[in-house]
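Tutorial, part two.
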Amino acid sequence: MAGGGIPMNTAPIRGGYLTGKALIFPISLVISLFFLWGFSYGLLDVLNKHFQTVLGITKLESTGLQVMYFGGGYLCFSPVAAEVLKRKGYKVTILMGLGFYSLGAIMFWPTAHFSTPHNAKASFGGFLVCTLVIACGLATLETAANSYAVVIGDPALASARLQFCQSWNGVASFIGPLIASKAFFTGSSQNNLINVQYVYLAVSMAGLAVAVLFFFAKLPEVEEETTRRGSVAMDATIELGVDQNGNIIGDEPLYRQYNMIFGFIAQFCYVGAQVTIASFFINYCTENAPYTSAEASQMLSYGLITFTVGRFIATALATVFESNFLLTIYCCCAIAFNAYICSGHGKAAVGVLIAIFFFEAPMYPTIFTLGTANLGRHTRRGAGILVMGVSGGAVFPPIQGAVADAANTRISYVVPLVGFCVVLAYVVFHWASHGFHIMRVKGEAVIATSLEGGALGGVVTTVHYDEKRLSVANIEEVRRGSIGAVSVKGVTGGVNKY
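Running the prediction step on this input gives:
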C-alpha cells in the first residue's frame, strides 16, 4: 500500500471534497492513526493500576500518567500541532506526530529495564516523561486526523464520517487491556515491568510502520483557502459563504467564535469524565465487587468493546438523526447511569459501569464536529483548540484520585457526573439554537444538508430554490443576505455550497 502505485491525485482539493472511491484510501490511512491512539490509550488505564502494584504509588500519584498524557501532551502541545498543520499541511503534521509517538514508546524500554524497587519513584518519573512524549505525538495526530476526516468529504456527513473513523479507535482500545490482562497481571509479570518493555517496543514498531506508509502515500491535501469562507468550495465568480445576516461565515476573529469556545469547554469536561471512568475502572471492580485485578482488566476490555459497538451504532444513527439531538439523548442516559454507579454495589454496579461506555461513544466526535462548525479560515486552528479540550483528562483524574483516597472509589465517580452535566448543557443549547430538529435535513433542494454543519460548516438558513430560475439577481440577494446560500449540483461529483 505504501508505494507510489496508488492512483491518487496529490494536488490540493480546490473544488470541494472527495466522494466515492476517492475517499477510501485517505480515510483508511486516517483510521490507522485512530487505531494507534486507541491502543495506546487502552494500555494507559491498565498501567495506572499496574504501577500502583509494582512501584508502590498511591491512586492520586498514579494519575500523574493522565496528567502527562492529557495535560502535558494535549493541552500544551496541541497549539503547536495546530500551527504546524496550518503552515505545513496534513501530511507533514501527521509524520511529526508519528515520530513523537514512536520515540516515546521506545523510551519505555530503558525506563522499564532499569527500574528497581529501590528507585521506584524515579522510575515512575521516567515513565511520566515517556508518556509525555507519546502524548505530544498523539495530540499532533488527533489535531490532524480529526480535522482531515471532517474536511475531506461531504460536510453533510462530517459527524458520521468522524464517528466511523473514531470507531476504530475503540476497536484498538479494548485490545490494549485484553493484552495487558495477560501480559501485566498473570504469573511473575504481575510484580515486574519486563512485559511492559516488549509491549511498548511493539507499539513503537507499529508507529514507525504507519509513518513509512504515510511518507510514501500520495495523500490529498485540503487547502485552507477552500475552507476560508466557511463553505465547501468557492467558484471563481461566486465567492459567497454567508449567513442569514449577510456576514461572511468564519470571518470574525478567533476569540469571537463562541460556539467553538463553548465546544472546547464541553470537550474538556467530556474527556475528563471519560478518562476518570476508565482510569479507576479496575479499582472500582476490585473494591466494589468480587473481582481480581486480572478479571477487572478483562472487564475494562468489555467496557471498551461496548464503547466500540456504541460508536458504530452512533455512526448509523448520525446519518438519520441530527447529531445534537442524539447527543442530548446519550447525555441524559450517561448521567442516569453515572448516578447509579455512585450509589450501587456489586456485580450489577460493574455492569452499569460497563454500559455507560455505550453512551460515551459518540460524544467526542460529535462535540468536535459541532464545535468546529462554520469556522471558515479558522478551521485548522479551531481543530487544534478542540483537541486541547482533551486536556480535561489531566484535570479530572487527580480530583477523582483525591476523592477516592479520602473516601472510596465508588463515591469518587461523582466527578465524571459533573462533566456529563456540562456536556448536556452545551448540546441542549446548541440543539435549541438550531430549532430542535430531530431528523437530519435532507434533499438536493435544501441548502443546509445538516444544521450542525461540519468543520467547513453548512449555512444557518434553509432555502428551497428552482435551479433553472437562479439568476445573477438571486445571487446578489444571497450576497447581501436577503436569502440564504444556495446549492449547485455537478461540481466535483457532489454538491457544492455557495
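The chain has a mean pLDDT of 75. In part three we will examine how such features are distributed along the chain.
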